[in-house]
Specification:
It catalyses: S-ubiquitinyl-[E2 ubiquitin-conjugating enzyme]-L-cysteine + [acceptor protein]-L-lysine = [E2 ubiquitin-conjugating enzyme]-L-cysteine + N(6)-ubiquitinyl-[acceptor protein]-L-lysine. GO terms for molecular function: ubiquitin protein ligase activity. The strands form 4 sheets. The protein has a 4-stranded mixed beta sheet with strand order 7-8-10-9, with helices on one face. Strands 1-2 form a two-stranded parallel sheet. It is mostly helical. Among the domains are: 60 residues, no CATH class; 146 residues, no CATH class; 106 residues, Hect, E3 ligase catalytic fold, CATH 3.30.2410.
């Protein structure tokens, strides 16, 4: 045996041992008498030097070379099968020596060809062996080492790997982690570095190799990927190779996962562990280097982890049920119709603006012209910069779609849910560390193509809190651009423009005044809606720093949703609002106003005190209501239709006609309780619902309830919403359920969260007697009283996304004991609380204040 091999065996003995738990060789790591401090193993150079010394001294070697050699001759070690792996493990157990298993693993997992040929399906295995044998005519030649099979292409999702066999085999290997972990690490390191080098010159040949994707599926199955020993080198290298494949290859990998992997949970857990540990490492760097202002997205390895998680997210979608093509096509047509309406409206504005520009130019040239326009008048606003056509690219390139998503034909909102909940892809720990403001600034300061990595490219990974923060930052950035543009305009122009969207309303004519303001300054001039929103109440003092706007939205929603207007009705079972199908014909303006208010509330971060069923928010995202939505919007009808669909005539001993007595004519109740008759098909009253057509009946009835019967009401409502939100990232960033939280907040009120995050001012601390009394009283409040308190102090009775802790309530000492009531500044979430002399007095004054708060005078 050569000196090099002998040294290698000593090195192996020091690092791995012989595998015999009863070994007595003091120079073997398996021995309990091992003479070395095991910290020597941390320095491989020191181990190598010691191996050379031992070879010169001819100290004992444990490994019985003859036993290994004899067994190796019986084993086929150029690939793994389930049988030979089990046989190999049984043999190692029998002789109580794991060196042969480690050697075989090294041979397989360090060599691309050997690993790619392992765990093959029988039909592909035969085909490939023929290619090897007749290499003069087959695609796999000794020079290329690539296997080609006409059944395997980048455009399909076929693979040569026997997934079930591979999973059982890798599960078996994973159970011997203590014996083979180091060998797996060393072998994968060699394999992946070699593969990375090969991909630089032979990427196409490798990606079109019939067995190529087997490698990624096999390695993904290894539990070692989430081991800290692997995470920062092997796992990162593996993820880097995977996410640098061509778009076609990545798309195929996603399709393979979605088709063959019944449970993605383990893969997702591995990647989330990887991201969490890289986040921890970044935190340590930031703490050590106090002047380090690097973003979490700049942490080496983070891009690879989140990019792989995106592959799993797409596989999660593809493995679930997509909306039907019929539904998708209907939604496309509906949205196209709405966009055309927006284009027409904006074109009318552009035409008017051009005429006004010409008129102002003539007036400017005239010696008698004067600049007397008021900032808030329609004549002033008509000179704002022309808005872009909705078909033009926005100033900031959208980062929310990518080539892989387009290649896969994926639109996340076409999937109600995935194989796993969407929240499983959100790493909460990493999201807590993301500085979304800096991420956004970094994003807009450079072209999208030059950004190496940003969390903004991965909305599925962002928590709802961070998405909202991102939307708010984007809104504020647009508002700032509006103000800056107007400021420059005002310097060089005699026509003064208002940098804010300000409306002036009377409390007793709230809806009328709001309609006029929004129509004149909003609908005809959509850019106005992108300005910061301010409200003035006639006859009242107070500068709107947020509180007045909150009160305006609260008051107007209370009025316009009231039964007196007849625009909406309340479902008694769900207590949710829904459109009145028999509302008056002349309410288009009012419905448009409500849609605009929803959009303005989102744009200005105001939570509304309204409750719609989830299907409304799906419709606001361009979706249509279907049978599944009835479960939360019309529960009783849903249960009835469900029983119709599951009715078994044979088991029940009667037909559907006899059991249900339904026809294709149905009745819908309106806000007044009247029953409105609709034919789902022509002559519906004479067409019975049968076992054959019941699915059609359910589909048409659901469509009537959620779409067609309220089309005249919803279309202007949706139009108003789009007037405000069309150019924002709302549809790209959020899911419908997140839009609901964005508009209406959370119904869950945890006052312990509110208390834990509260701040104190003016001499109060958390230990002040009045503060202790205050929280003692609040914790005993009923749910209704708690909502009144929140409305009194914050302008809304809902919790923002993330809970009440995010409100940051400020309690200030408002002088010593007095008879005056507590007051609040809703724009600052601030409560001004006198230092009352007793808990009874505090409870009395606080109750009076929250029960009678209305108007800025008490705010």
């Amino acid at each position: 045996m050569s000196a090099g091999k002998i040294i290698h065996r000593y090195f192996h003995q020091l690092i791995h041992g012989c595998g015999n738990n009863q070994c007595s060789n003091i120079y073997c790591q398996s021995s309990s008498l091992f003479k070395y401090d095991k910290t020597i193993l941390n320095d491989r150079n020191e181990v190598a030097a010691e191996a050379i010394r031992l070879s010169l001294e001819h100290v004992p070697l444990c490994v019985d070379e003859n036993i290994i050699k004899e067994y190796e001759e019986k084993m086929e070690i150029n690939k793994l099968t389930e049988n030979n792996l089990q046989e190999l493990i049984n043999h190692c157990k029998k002789i109580d020596n794991w060196n042969l298993l480690n050697k075989s693993i090294e041979d397989i997992f360090s060599n691309r060809l050997n690993l790619l040929n392992s765990f093959l399906k029988e039909d592909f295995s035969n085909n490939i062996s023929i290619n090897k044998e007749f290499s003069s005519t087959a695609s796999a030649t000794p020079k290329s080492f690539f296997i080609h099979d006409p059944r395997i292409t980048l455009d399909n999702d076929e693979i040569t790997l026997d997934i079930d066999v591979m999973k059982r085999s890798i599960k078996l290997l994973n159970s011997y982690e203590d014996q083979i972990s180091l060998t797996i690490h060393k072998s994968l390191n060699l394999l992946l570095n070699t593969l990375q080098y090969e991909l630089k010159s032979k990427q196409y040949e490798l990606e079109t190799d019939a067995n190529f994707f087997n490698l990624f599926i096999i390695i993904f199955e290894l539990s070692y990927l989430s081991d800290p020993f692997f995470l920062f080198d092997i796992t990162r290298l593996f993820y880097s190779i995977l996410t640098n494949l061509s778009i076609d290859a990545q798309a195929k990998f996603v399709r393979i996962l979605s088709k063959y992997t019944k449970n993605l949970n383990d893969y997702i857990s591995h990647v989330q562990q990887y991201i969490t540990l890289h986040t921890l490492r970044w935190c340590n760097h930031v703490q050590i280097e106090s002047d380090n202002d690097e973003l979490l997205s700049s942490e080496p390895g983070m891009k690879e982890g989140v990019s792989v998680l995106r592959l799993l997210f797409y596989a999660n979608l593809l493995s679930s049920q997509r909306d039907s093509l019929e539904v998708i096509e209907t939604e496309r047509k509906n949205y196209e119709k709405m966009e055309n309406e927006l284009v027409k409206r904006r074109q009318r504005y552009n035409d008017d603006a051009s005429d006004n520009d010409e008129q102002h130019e003539n007036e400017r040239k005239s010696p008698s012209s004067e600049s007397t326009s008021e900032p808030s008048t329609p004549s002033a606003t008509t000179t704002t910069t022309k808005r872009k056509s909705i078909n033009e690219v926005d100033e900031i390139e959208s980062p929310y779609e990518n080539l892989l998503q387009i290649k896969l034909g994926l639109k996340p909102n076409e999937y109600r849910h995935g194989q796993h909940p969407f929240d499983i892809f959100v790493n909460e720990y990493a999201n807590e560390k993301i500085d979304i403001r800096k991420e956004y600034l970094n994003f807009i300061q450079q072209p999208t193509s030059s950004i190496q990595f940003s969390f903004i490219f991965y909305p599925f990974f962002l928590s709802t809190i961070n998405k909202i923060a991102l939307l708010n930052i984007e809104s504020k950035a647009r508002m700032y651009l509006q103000r800056r543009s107007i400021f420059v305009h005002n310097i060089f122009s005699s026509i003064r423009l208002n940098p804010f969207f300000k409306i002036h309303v009377r409390r007793n004519h709230l809806i009328e005044d709001a309609l006029i303001s929004l129509e004149y300054q909003g609908i005809e001039h959509p850019d106005e809606l992108k300005k910061q929103f301010f409200v003035e109440f006639e006859g009242e003092q107070g500068h709107d720093e947020g509180g007045l706007s909150k009160e305006f939205f609260q008051l107007i929603t209370e009025q316009i949703f009231s039964p007196e207007y007849g625009m909406f009705m309340t479902n008694e079972e769900t207590r949710c609002l829904w459109f009145n199908p028999s509302a008056a014909e002349d309410l288009d303006r009012e419905y448009t106003l409500i849609g605009m208010l929803l959009g303005l509330a989102i744009y200005n971060s105001i939570i509304l005190d309204i409750k719609f069923p989830p299907v409304l928010y799906r419709k606001l995202m361009g979706k249509i209501g279907t049978f599944e939505d009835l479960e939360t919007s019309h529960p009783t009808i849903y249960r009835s239709l469900k029983s119709l669909l599951t009715f078994n005539e044979e088991n029940e001993g009667m037909t559907i006609e006899d059991a249900f007595s339904l026809t294709f004519q149905v009745a819908i109740a309106d806000a007044m309780g009247s029953r409105l008759l609709f034919d789902l098909k022509e002559n519906g009253e004479i067409i019975p619902v049968t076992n054959v057509n019941r699915e059609e009946f359910v589909r048409l009835y659901s469509d009537l309830l959620l779409n067609k019967s309220i089309e005249k009401q919803f279309d202007p409502f949706f139009h108003g919403f789009l007037l405000v939100t069309h150019d924002s990232s709302l549809r790209k960033l959020f899911r419908p359920d997140e839009i609901e939280l964005l508009v209406a907040g959370s119904q869950v009120l945890d006052f312990n969260q509110l208390a834990s995050a509260a701040a104190y001012d003016g001499g109060y601390t958390k230990d002040s007697p009045t503060i202790k009394n205050f929280w003692s009283i609040l914790m005993t409040f009923t749910d209704e009283q708690k909502r009144k308190f929140l409305r009194f102090t914050t302008g809304s009775d809902r919790a923002p996304i993330g809970g009440l802790a995010r409100l940051k309530l400020i309690i200030s000492r408002n002088g010593p004991d007095a008879d005056r009531l507590p007051t609040a500044h809703t724009c600052f979430n601030a409560l001004l609380l006198p230092d009352y002399s007793s808990i009874e007095k505090l409870q009395e004054k606080l109750s009076i204040a929250i029960d009678n708060a209305a108007g800025f005078g008490l705010r």
